[in-house]
Design a protein that fits this description.
Elements lengths: L5 H6 L5 E3 L8 H9 L4 E4 L5 H14 L4 E6 L5 H11 L3 E5 L7 H6 L3 E6 L2 H9 L5 E4 L5 E3 L4 H8 L7 E4 L5 H10 L3 E4 L1 H4 L8 H9 L5 E4 L6 E5 L2 H11 L4 H8 L2 H6 L24 H20 L4
Parallel strand pairs: 1-9, 2-3, 3-4, 4-5, 5-6, 6-8, 8-9
Antiparallel strand pairs: 7-11, 10-11
Helix pairs in contact: 2-3, 3-4, 8-14, 11-12
Bound molecules: flavin mononucleotide.
Length: 315
């Protein structure tokens, strides 16, 4: 049964769950499977060519008649082409990260595309709301991939009371209990990345999926934190080397050269020592690979149970 809430109405979906856009990990197959499961799938255009993104959008349209989105990394050299493509293809919604989304809001909305920027602070959330975004994602530093400085709990406490458009919460949310907690805090919904890496439809390399299943709570690290561009992934030979250089004060150019291509190396080639397996901190609950339909159904059922249990507390 549908969970009728602001976010489900805005996006035309059944459950208030968005699959986070993931560079090298979320393609048409994953996005369509998530959307067919009643949540909202997203194709990750980060690191990809415009042609690849066009093909994936068109492929997703053949795999689902449900709404799906595209994630745009605003630091990508082809970002303007990707923005034009999304407008021309009339994709249901976009999530925007790694740059200033404000100049793009009107253009997307004029093309009928809903705009959901990802923000790491109160100041940016307020700026994005005043600029007319349809919703926003706040992402805590428990998340896999690029991270800010605040935890998900701190962001929910700080941002949710101040914003009136729907706020989706991300970072360390990988099961129904965490989803219920976010909804109790006042979130409009949740965005999950890591949980959807461990699905049969996700093209993430099997060796990287296996490494995530084996990992436990303390096994992730953030590289680049002292230089203001933290990225969370599993501790391995690459992160050991990077962190050693970072601590020794190595020039940024040297660190960038070491990091270039490491996401792809893990996600596509399956090199889980020289590449970076980007994943969030909820590692103990990331312990099985299942089809998206089962993952979404289990999360929704667990969230419903957790919310029902909370209502039983004698107050
Ligand atoms: C492998 C991976 C790649 C990611 N790539 C992107 C990206 O290209 N753009 C983006 O905005 N967020 C990216 N993210 C963040 C996710 O969209 C999502 O917000 C995050 O995974 C939520 O936290 P969780 O991993 O704890 O679920 C990535 C996350 C992962 C795990």
């Amino acid at each position: 049964m549908k969970m009728k809430m602001k976010l489900t109405e805005l996006l035309g979906i059944q459950y208030p769950i968005i699959q986070g856009g993931m560079a090298w990990a979320s393609d048409a197959t994953l996005a369509a499977a998530v959307s067919n499961a009643g949540a909202a799938g997203i194709i990750g255009s980060g690191g990809r060519t415009t042609e690849w993104t066009r093909e994936e959008i068109r492929r997703a349209k053949t795999l689902t008649d449900k709404p799906f989105g595209v994630n745009v990394m605003l630091m990508a050299p082809n970002k303007d082409e990707i923005v034009d493509l999304i407008c021309a293809e009339k994709v249901a919604f976009v999530t925007l990260g790694a740059g200033n989304p404000v100049p793009y809001i009107d253009k997307f909305q004029a093309a009928g595309v809903k705009v959901i920027p990802v923000v790491p602070s109160v100041k940016l959330a307020q700026r994005i709301e005043s600029a007319g975004a349809d919703a926003l994602v706040i992402e805590g530093m428990e998340a896999g991939g690029h991270v800010g400085t605040q935890t998900t709990m701190a962001l929910m406490s700080n941002v949710l009371p101040l914003i009136t458009i729907p706020v989706v919460v991300a970072g360390g949310i990988s099961d129904g209990r965490a989803m219920a907690a976010a909804l109790l805090m006042g979130a409009a919904g949740v965005q999950m990345g890591s949980r959807f890496l461990l699905t049969t439809e996700c093209p993430f390399h099997p060796a990287a999926k296996e490494r995530i299943i084996k990992a436990t709570d303390t096994d992730s690290v953030v590289t680049g934190y002292s230089r203001n561009h933290g990225v969370r992934g599993l501790k391995n030979a690459f992160t050991d080397r990077y962190l050693e250089l970072e601590r020794s004060g190595a020039p940024q150019g040297e660190l960038d050269a070491l990091a270039t291509g490491t996401n792809r190396l893990a996600a596509i080639d399956g090199d889980v020592e020289a590449g970076l397996v980007q994943v969030g901190q909820s590692l103990n609950v990331l312990n099985n690979i299942a089809p998206c339909r089962d993952v979404v159904a289990a999360i929704v059922q667990e969230a419903r149970q957790a919310l029902a249990n909370a209502c039983k507390i004698e107050l």
